[in-house]
Write a structure and sequence with these properties.
The protein is built from four helices and no strands. By secondary structure, the protein is mainly α.
């Protein structure tokens, strides 16, 4: 009796339980309606915060914060544990 085996590809990075099934429907439908609502709410909140800081500290403060954000986004801010 010859031994039968099923090949299993371990190198595959597809994890259906965590990332869902791949298909065309997910690309067409898009995100959940509440997700888009949350994104617009956070954009509105950020806009209100910018207006408040503009009125409180002046317009140069927002420009400085944007510049600092651009500079810090270039660096990888991960902690290296030895």
């Amino acid at each position: 009796m010859a031994g039968k085996s099923i090949s299993h590809d371990v190198s595959s990075n597809i994890d259906a339980l965590r990332f869902g099934l791949e298909g065309v429907k997910g690309d067409i439908v898009g995100s959940h309606p509440l997700e888009s609502l949350r994104e617009t709410a956070t954009k509105n909140l950020e806009g209100k915060k910018r207006i408040i800081t503009d009125l409180t500290y002046g317009s140069s403060f927002n420009l400085k914060m944007d510049l600092d954000k651009q500079i810090l986004s270039r660096f990888d801010l991960q902690l290296h544990v030895i």
